[in-house]
Amino acid sequence: MNAHQRYQAERKRRTGLLLGMLGATLLLAFLFLFAGRYPTAGFRFPTDWSTNAMTRSIFLRIRLPRIVLALLAGAMLSASGFTFQMLFSNPLVEPGFLGVSQGSAFGAALMIVMGVGSTLFVQLSATFFGLLALLASYLLATRFRFGGWLLRLVLSGIAVSALFSSALGVIKLVAEPTKDLQDITFWMMGGLWNASWAQILSILWVVILSMAILLGYRWKLNLLSLQEKTSFSVGMNPKRDRIILLIVATVGTTVTISITGLIGWVGLITPHLGRKLFGSDSSTSLPGSMILGSFFLLVCDTIGRTVLATEIPIGLLTSFIGAIIFMIILSLKHQEGKA
Amino acid sequence: MNALTVNHLSFIYPSGTKALDDVSLSVEEGQSVAILGSNGAGKSTLLDVLLGWQKSAQVSLYGKPISSYGRKELGRTLALVPQFEQYNFSFSLIDYVLFGRSPYLSGLGTPSEVDAEIAYQALYDVGLVNYAERHITTLSGGEHQLLLLARAIAQQSSMLLLDEPTSALDPANRKRVLTILKQLHAKGKTLLFTTHDANLAYELASHVAMVKKGSLLCYGPKEEVVNTAMLTTLYDTELTVAQVGTKTLIY
User: Fold this and answer.
1) CB under 8 Å to A151, separation ≥6 — which residues?
2) Cβ–Cβ < 8 Å for A154, A97
3) Which of A169-173, A255-259, B138-142, B230-234 has the highest mean pLDDT?
4) ipTM of the complex as predicted
5) Which of A65, A200, A338, B217 sits at 20 to 30 Å (Cα–Cα) from B119?
6) Torsion over CA of A289, A290, A291 and A295, rounded to 10 degrees?
7) Which residue has the higher pLDDT, A150 or A301?
8) For residue B29, what pLDDT is reported?
9) Is B19 helix (H, G, I), strand (E, B) or coil?
10) pTM for the whole thing?
C-alpha cells in the first residue's frame, strides 16, 4: 500500500469511526430514556405506556427533552472549546478561559437578582455579558505590555474572570437568600433538570446555526491555528475569520449555558479526546469532538439523575470526571509535543 | 513577462519606525532574486509588503496592483515559505501540506482527492513522502524546512517568497533545500528570497537586491552587483569575492 492509499484508508477509518460513534451515542441516548427512578430506580421499560398518562409525561416531557438538551449542549460546548483552542493555537483554552463563563454567570445572576428571571432575559443577559467579557479580555490583551500574545490573552482572561467573579460575589451577597441565591448557586453548578421543550426551542436555532457555521469552517480552523501570516498567504482572511468564529463560538456557548448553567470541562476535555481519536485535522476531529461532547454530557447527566435519590449537579460531575480523564490523557506515554 | 514591480516603495510601521525608504525593483518571470542584507536591514518587511501582508500601493504583480488581488487569487500567485512555523497541534505531514491547497477550495470546501494527489507529489518532490503520516512535531529542523517548502509547492503559485530559507540548516540540509529550489527555478518558477548569506545569494539567485537600513543599495544581475566594493559597503566590513575554479566564494 503506497502513501496515498494509506491516506485514503485513514480517511475511511475516521469517517467510519465518526458514524459509529454517532450511532452509539444516539443508541445510548435512546436507552437512557429508560433510566431513572420512576416507577423504581434503574432501567425500566414502560409497560403501561398507553394507559398511564404519568408514564408518557415523564418520558416525553421530562426525560426526552433532558436527553436532547444534553446532546445539544454537549456538542455545542465541545465545538466552542475546540474552536477556541484552534483560534488561540492553544490546547488549554476554552471559553471559560477568557472570562466568557464568568461573564455569562454574572449576566444570568444579575437578571435573577433583579427579579427578571424569565428565560429570555437570562439568556440575553448571559450572552451579552459573555461577549462583553470576551471583548474585554481581547482589548486588555492588546494593551498589556508583558509577554507574547498568548500569555497576554491568558493573563487578561484571568483578570476579566476575576472581575466578573467578584461582581458575582457582590450579587450573591445581596441576593435574597431563600430564592435568588439558591437559583444563582444551582445555575453555577449547572444542571439539566429544568430542561423543557420550550427552553430547547428558545435556543435551538442559535445553537444549530452556531454549530453549522463552526462545522462549515471545520477545515479552515486548521489554517487559523497557524501563524496569521501563513494563513494569510494561503488565501485566508485570518483577522476577519477569527472574529466571526469567536463571536459564533461565544454566542453558542453563552446561549447554551444560559439554560444549562455553568458546565465546565466539556469544552476542554472532549476536543483533546477528539484529537486523540481522529488526529489533529479539524475536519474530522471537530465533528468527532462534538459527538464526544454529547456522549460525555449524556453520560454525566444520566449518572447525575439516577445514581442518588437526589440530583447531582452536572457541573460537579463533568468537572470531576473531566479532571480525571485530563490527568490520564496527559500521563499517557508518547504524548510529548502532541495536542 | 514582468512578474513584480516595486515603485518607490517606502514603509513606516504604526510605531513610527521607518523600515523601507524609496525602494524600486522589477522582477521578470522565471528570475531568482535574492534580497541581501544584514539583520534588521528591512528584508523581512520588504517580503511582507510583497506578500501583501503589509499594505502598499507601490507593488504590482503581473501588471496589476497587489491591493486589487483577492485573497485566494493572491494565494494562487504567491506562496510563502516562512523562516519558521508555529504549530501547537500535531498535524500529520500530509495534513500540513494540504493547507497549501486552500486557495483552490471553494468557500467552506475541504480538499479533494486531486488536492491530496498534488500534496503527495509535493512531499515526494522534497523527499518526505515516506513520512506523510508522521506528526510534524517529530520532524528535525531540516525536515521542517522541507515541509514548509512542500506546502508552498502544493500551492502551485507562479512565485515563491522565501524568508531566510537556509539560515537554520546544517550543511547537508542546506544542500537539499538548495537543490530543490534550483530545480524549481529550472522549471520556471519565480523565486524571491531574503538572506544575509552572500554565498547563498550568489549560488541561487540570478539577480541580487542589496538592502541596507531600509534603502536599496543596488539591484541587478548578480555578476554585475556582487563585488568586493558593494559587499563591503553593505555589511560595513571587508568582504572578498574570489573565484575558486568554477565556484565564486565570498568570505
Assistant:
1) none
2) yes
3) A169-173
4) 0.91
5) A338
6) 90
7) A301
8) 93
9) strand
10) 0.90
Using an 8 Å Cβ cutoff, are A220 and A231 in contact? no
- Would you state the pLDDT for residue A307? 87
A contact residues 208-247, partner B, Cβ 8 Å cutoff: 216-220, 222-223, 225-227, 229-230, 232-237
**A53 is written with which cell numbers?**
398518562
| pLDDT value of residue A334 | 58
C-alpha radius of gyration, chain A, whole number? 21
Residue A85 has pLDDT above 60, yes or no: yes
Q: Which residues contact B52 (CB under 8 A, 6 or more apart)?
A: A232, B59, B66, B67, B69, B74, B78
Do the Cβ atoms of A165 and A103 come closer than 8 Å? no
Q: Which residue in the set A90, A216, A234 is minimally distant from B108, CB to CB?
A: A216
Residue A238: closest CA among chain B residues belongs to which residue?
A: B71
Name, in order, each residue with C-beta under 8 angstroms of B175's C-beta and a sequence gap of 6 or more. Answer: none
Single-letter amino acid, residue A316: L
Rounded Cα gap, residues A297 and A69, in angstroms: 9
What b/e string do you get for A293-328 counting C-beta neighbours within 10 Å, with b at 16 or more? bbbbbbbbbbebbbeeeeebbbbbbbbebbeebbee
How far apart CA B127 and CA B230 sit, in angstroms, is 37
For chain A, where are the alpha helices, taking DSSP H only?
Answer: 3-32, 53-57, 64-87, 100-113, 119-143, 149-174, 180-189, 197-216, 220-224, 228-233, 238-260, 266-278, 282-306, 314-331
Residue A331 CB-density burial (10 A; 0-12 exposed, 13-18 middle, 19+ buried):
exposed
B188: left (phi over 0), alpha (psi -120 to 50) or beta: left
Residue-wise pLDDT for A29-49, tens only, equals: 999 999 887 777 778 777 777
Using the Cβ of A86 and the Cβ atoms of chain B, whether some distance falls under 8 Å is answered with yes
Distance CA A99, CA A239 (A): 21
**Separation in Å, CA A228 to CA A237, A274, B19:** 9, 25, 21
Measure in Å the smallest separation between the Cα of A182 and chain B Cα atoms. Answer: 41
| Residue contact A339–B133, C-beta within 8 A | no
- Which value, to the nearest 10 degrees, does the dihedral of the CA atoms of residues A201, A203, A209, A212 take? -90
CB contact under 8 A, B155 and A283: no
At residue B77, the pLDDT reads 95
d(C-alpha A315, C-alpha A301), whole Å: 9
d(C-alpha B119, C-alpha B243), whole Å: 40
Which positions in chain A touch B86 (Cβ < 8 Å)? 89, 226-227
Mean of all residue pLDDT scores within chain B: 90
Q: What is the pLDDT of residue A337?
A: 46
In a 13 Å sphere around the CA of B50, the CA atoms on its Cβ side amount to 32
Name, in order, each residue with C-beta under 8 angstroms of B243's C-beta and a sequence gap of 6 or more: B249
Whether the upstream peptide bond of residue A39 has omega within 30° of 0, thus cis, is yes
Query: In this structure, are residues A103 and A142 in contact, taking their beta carbons and an 8 Å threshold?
Result: no
Backbone angles phi, psi at B64, to 5 degrees: -120, 135
Position A336 scores a pLDDT of 43
CB atoms within 10 A of CB B172: 9
